[in-house]
Amino acid sequence: MKPEYHLLIKYFRDECDNSERNEIEAWINASEENRKLFGELINSWEVAGKSVDLLTPDFEKAWNNIQLQTGLKSREAKKINLRPIFRQLLKIAALVIILLGIGIVVKVSIFNKPALKIEASLSNSKKELHLADGTVIFLNRNSKVSFPEKFSGVREVSLEGEAFFKVAKDKAHPFIVNAGGTITKVLGTSFNIKVGNSGQVFVSVLTGKVAFRNVKDKSQILHLLKGDQGKFDPNSEQLVKSHYSDENFLSWQTGIIRFNNKPLSEAVKVISDYYSKNIEIDKSLKNRPITVTFNNLPLDEAIKIIEMTLNVKATFNNDSTILITNN
Question: What is the pTM of this model?
């Protein structure tokens, strides 16, 4: 069951006690749908400026306003007694007005959104998507992204799998990516996001600046610059910042694979992932270094180069596994 909006607002303001916080976080973790909705709610809260009066139910203030607007304040000054039940009804009316205001804000922010488009890539293909704002998304195999046909206010998308984003600059409208329990927020830059099979999320920045944070813990936020990588572990629920050393993290998008004195065992992992092919090597070859560059080559040509470079032999086993042994 979704928590009351006033409780969510307390959570956004970091005013919940332990039991209230546990209730909110239990709801968030109950399903992926809840996590996505929570991400939308907190984004709308940030867009609203965090200080909108309608989102802060001040019942006493509302009651005083109604008294002034109806003339009851002046009558009370003259010591004209009101019946208790009438006073109670007016207080209820004040509460209804406030709740209606909250409902309007939430409805406008959350539910009055354009219909979402969902684009998915197959296991053997990638996609290039052009959004209405000029942003380009390169979608890796077995990935999915959803976004509105036309952005209104904040530019927001959701990702499953892996994608490279070239975000069109718009300082007035941040670009936000929801992925695997994280939110990545930018104004205009290029970066790669990968949600691994184990649920880990990696954000690697190619240009510009990126804010990367945990959906459930607002205090956890990383500011990433060119060359930085942010990692989110769903088990520890922690963010870790590092400088990425894998020059092939974008090979799936560029088609270029480069190794410089890299052990063959590590190179084979990259090649296997890129070509979606199982490759096994003889134990004696694991630490043999290889220096080579593949530029959008078919698999058979890449394997031939490995054979010639290292003087090894590659055999195909039922067209499903490649075995590399000493020549």
Answer: 0.63
